[in-house]
Design goal:
This protein is mainly α and 187 residues long. Helices cover 60% and strands 0% of the residues. The protein is built from 6 helices and no strands. α3 crosses α4, α3 packs antiparallel against α5 and α5 packs across α6.
Length: 187
């Protein structure tokens, strides 16, 4: 009775590709600009323009309504002539809108991921800065670390300025009613 045991095969070091280095933000910007140049009909809009087009295009969000409209266009030559587009052309526009909607969703997900990563970076930086200030403040008390005193003073000054900054303009508050004033009644 012979026992043939086979050892699991391991990939040779030459067969596994080395991990790709992380791409830099500048390289991504360059690639996005190059990619954008190849996208047809990129139309930057002001927020007011987007709002107007969204209001006007409410019908286009109802998929069943659009499909029924395309069927109507294809069912009567007079409708096709009045609309100025045949059913096949409108169907292509509908399909293209759907496909570009998927691109929009993917880009939005990527953007949300980048925004989240930047928020985490900001939090880490704030934590490190607070820790550095705390350690520096403690060390600056010792004459041996007198070189830290100007840094601690500058950070204190900047923090004080930040606390003093006025918030953005807000709606005026209504004054409180005068003491002893009676509430207004409708006649």
């Amino acid at each position: 009775m012979s026992t043939n045991q086979q050892l699991p095969q391991t990939a040779s070091p030459a067969a596994t590709p080395p991990p790709e280095p992380a791409i830099t933000p500048e390289a991504i910007i360059e690639q996005l600009r190059a990619l954008s140049a190849h996208i047809p009909e990129v139309t930057p809009l002001a927020s007011e323009q987007r709002a107007v087009l969204r209001r006007r295009g409410r019908t286009s969000r109802n998929v069943e309504l659009l499909r029924s409209s395309i069927s109507m266009i294809g069912s009567a030559d007079l409708v096709t002539q009045a609309v100025g587009h045949d059913a096949g052309e409108v169907r292509e526009m509908f399909d293209e809108r759907t496909r570009w909607g998927a691109v929009e969703d993917e880009l939005r997900a990527m953007l949300n991921g980048i925004v989240g990563a930047n928020l985490v970076r900001n939090q880490r930086l704030a934590f490190i800065a607070d820790r550095a200030y705390g350690v520096g403040s403690q060390l600056a008390r010792d004459p041996e670390h007198a070189g830290l005193v100007p840094h601690v003073q500058e950070i204190k000054r900047l923090k004080k300025l930040e606390r003093r900054r006025k918030p953005a303009v807000t709606a005026p508050k209504t004054p409180p009613p005068a003491v002893g004033a009676l509430p207004e009644t409708k006649a």
